[in-house]
Structure formats: structure tokens, C-alpha cells
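Q: Given only this backbone (216 positions), what sequence would you predict?
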């Protein structure tokens, strides 16, 4: 059955992600990141069980969802998880409601690898920006512009406010996608001094908005 596939000629409907979307985020992000190099390394598997990865990912993204600038497509097939300026770090207090799910999903090996991964925070840009923590589209619905549509409202909000956007791509093949949306590679980061996967750091300067934006 493919009747639920969106028509690529019709712009995807996007709305703000809410805490009530947690199950949908678990499902979409779990499948989207099942073969992601960073999450595979973190969880110690060749390919991750989407149900397992989804619960861990949801635990990490829900504090950002509460910030109110993350988005999800109306059909739940794609989501963009953003942090507003100066809010990219998640505090232990913010993680507390989701800590059990994260610890259980990560296991001992994953927990020990959070330290090397957190070294990336030291290279985070200091200037105000919106941070795209995660962008994921369910594999069955990729290639239809859903990810770009999910990114658009917060990108436009950043343009209105005159601040940049920043992300770290965990797949080199995704770099051209982000370049089409105005991002440029500013450097790379090798996790655990090269013992882990590589990330591509990307920055987008604010663009003059064509018209005032209203966040959905």
C-alpha cells in the first residue's frame, strides 16, 4: 500500500512538534537513525533496532521539543528538532524525566561513550544561532522533500531574527542536502580522536527574509 505517500508536487504540511508527539518521534527518528554512524557507534551495534534507538533518541530530543521551535510534518514522517539560541545544551534537570529510558537504551557501553561525544560541545559556535540537533525522515518517505519542509519554519525564524543556524551531519552523503538549504561545511570532528565516526560541522548565515514569517 502506498496510498499514504505524499504527492511530491504538493508542499508538506508542517506544524510545531509537541510533547504529545513523543511516540511519533520515537517511530520516525528510530527508523531514520537505524543506520546512522554516530548512533550505531554509541549503541554498539551494526544496525540498531529502530524501537531501541527511537526510545533513546526521544529521551534526548524531548527537552528540545519543549523549547517550542521543533517541527514535525502533519503525517509524522519527518521531524526537525531544533534548539533556540543559547539553549543547545540539555541540563541534567531537563533530562531527568527521560533519564531512565536513555540509560536503559544506551547500556553501559553507550554511557561510557557519551564522554567522548560530549567533547563536540566545546567546538559549538559561540555566536547566537538555532541548532538543528536532529533531522530525520522515515526511510519509506525519503526523497520527497519532507526533511527540507520540516526545517523551513525555524530557518525562516532565524532569518527574521538575523541569526545563523548550525548543525553537525553524521553522514557525508547528507552534506549536499544541507548545502542546498544554505549551510556550508566549516570543519569536521572525529569522535574519540578518530576511534569513532566523523561529523561534518555546518553553518548557515541568516538570509534576508522575502516576507514576514509566522511560525506554524
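A: Predicted residues:
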Amino acid at each position: 500500500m502506498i496510498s499514504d505517500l505524499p504527492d511530491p508536487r504538493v508542499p508538506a504540511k508542517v506544524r510545531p512538534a509537541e510533547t504529545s508527539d513523543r511516540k511519533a518521534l520515537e517511530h520516525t527518528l528510530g527508523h531514520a537513525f537505524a543506520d546512522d554512524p554516530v548512533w550505531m557507534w554509541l549503541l554498539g551495534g551494526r544496525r540498531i533496532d529502530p524501537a531501541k534507538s527511537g526510545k533513546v533518541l526521544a529521551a534526548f530530543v524531548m527537552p528540545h521539543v519543549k523549547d517550542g521551535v521543533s517541527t514535525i510534518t502533519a503525517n509524522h514522517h519527518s521531524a526537525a528538532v531544533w534548539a533556540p539560541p543559547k539553549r543547545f545544551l540539555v541540563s541534567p534537570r531537563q533530562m531527568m524525566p527521560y533519564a531512565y529510558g536513555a540509560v536503559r537504551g544506551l547500556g553501559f557501553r553507550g554511557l561510557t561513550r557519551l564522554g567522548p561525544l560530549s567533547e563536540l560541545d566545546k567546538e559549538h559556535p559561540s555566536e547566537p544561532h538555532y541548532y538543528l540537533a536532529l533531522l530525520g525522515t522515515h526511510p519509506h518517505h525519503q526523497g520527497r522533500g519532507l526533511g527540507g519542509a520540516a526545517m523551513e519554519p525555524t530557518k525562516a525564524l532565524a532569518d527574521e531574527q538575523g541569526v545563523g543556524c548550525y548543525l553537525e551531519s553524521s553522514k557525508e552523503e547528507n552534506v549536499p542536502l544541507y548545502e542546498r538549504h544554505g549551510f556550508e561545511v566549516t570543519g569536521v570532528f572525529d569522535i574519540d580522536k578518530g576511534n569513532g565516526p566523523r561529523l561534518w560541522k555546518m553553518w548557515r548565515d541568516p538570509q534576508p527574509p522575502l516576507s514576514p514569517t509566522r511560525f506554524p
